[in-house]
Specification:
It is a single chain. With 279 residues, this protein is of the alpha/beta class. β1, α4 and β2 form a beta-alpha-beta unit. It comes from Amycolatopsis methanolica 239.
């Protein structure tokens, strides 16, 4: 059956977003940069706050754990350091470079490693007690990915899913004002003859985040019953002010619990985490 113009446009947009997401972490140098961002840089507070939120969600569980979209293995290494023996860990990522980084980070630990997409995972049904999808659905076909999570988790198991919060003040300013401004500035610099290496840049990320109510409906549609909702990296500061503030104020490192919220301040969270169990 012939595709309509709209269908072709949608497929093209999905394909481009897919390519942009894949290109980000195919390069080993970019993988190293991602790992280093956990320790220092503009995104460090976000990553550490998210890790704290995942830690909290995993506190009451153990067993076979799948880390989907595992990146360079920061959660894998964290669990090996803090919960050794509690989990039998399997990790997968669409990027072979990321999986190589996980292997280096895990060392001699017995961690199962796979190059695989969240939308089509090579695991039997009901394989895991816990599935963690940390920062991956924004770069994937989310509904298909959620259905795969539901397929591989065991009855009575737990799914832990994080998502950028597209309706937070931070993301609205970043995506709707700050990044467009930088792109415009880069064009002006190009016309002015500024060398490419000195121009402002914004990566083509392929991000497509959804608000918490949308993700909740998505999880229910896949057969999950959503449980807890926690917002992390709670901050009133928006780009580019946040960069200056975060370089000068590092007190959050000693009070990481203050960067997450279920209360009135949750709308300031730049990301959120939702847990769910098979219905």
């Amino acid at each position: 059956m012939a595709l309509t113009g709209l269908q072709r446009a949608v497929r093209h947009a999905i394909s481009r977003r897919d390519e942009q997401a894949a290109a980000q972490y195919a390069d080993p140098d970019l993988v190293r940069g991602y790992a280093e961002a956990y320790e220092s840089g503009r995104a460090t507070r976000y990553f550490q706050s998210r890790l704290h939120a995942v830690d909290e969600a995993l506190r009451p569980v153990s067993g076979a754990l799948l880390d989907v979209g595992c990146g360079p293995g920061m959660l894998v290494r964290h669990l090996l350091d803090t919960r050794l023996g509690d989990f039998r860990i399997t990790a997968c990522d669409r990027s072979a470079a990321m999986i190589e980084a996980v292997a280096d980070r895990a060392g001699t630990s017995d961690v199962g490693l796979f190059v695989a997409r969240i939308e089509d995972m090579p695991f039997p049904d009901a394989s895991f007690d816990v599935v963690v999808a940390m920062g991956v659905l924004e770069y994937a076909r989310a509904r298909q990915g959620v259905r795969e999570l539901a397929r591989v988790v065991r009855p009575g198991g737990l799914a832990v899913v994080s998502m950028l919060n597209p309706v937070s003040p931070y993301r609205l300013v970043e995506w709707c004002l700050y990044w467009p401004f930088l792109r415009l500035l880069a064009q002006v610099e190009r016309l002015a003859g500024v060398p490419p290496g000195r121009r402002h840049t914004v990566p083509k990320s392929g991000i497509r985040a959804v608000p918490a109510p949308w993700l909740r409906r998505m999880l229910r549609g896949a057969g999950f019953e959503p449980a807890d909702l926690l917002y992390y990296d709670v901050t009133p500061f928006v780009p580019p002010l946040d960069k200056v503030i975060r370089e000068r104020r590092q007190g959050w490192r000693d009070h990481i619990d203050r960067t997450v919220s279920r209360g009135r301040g949750r709308w300031l969270g730049t990301g959120y985490l939702m847990t769910a169990r098979p219905g």
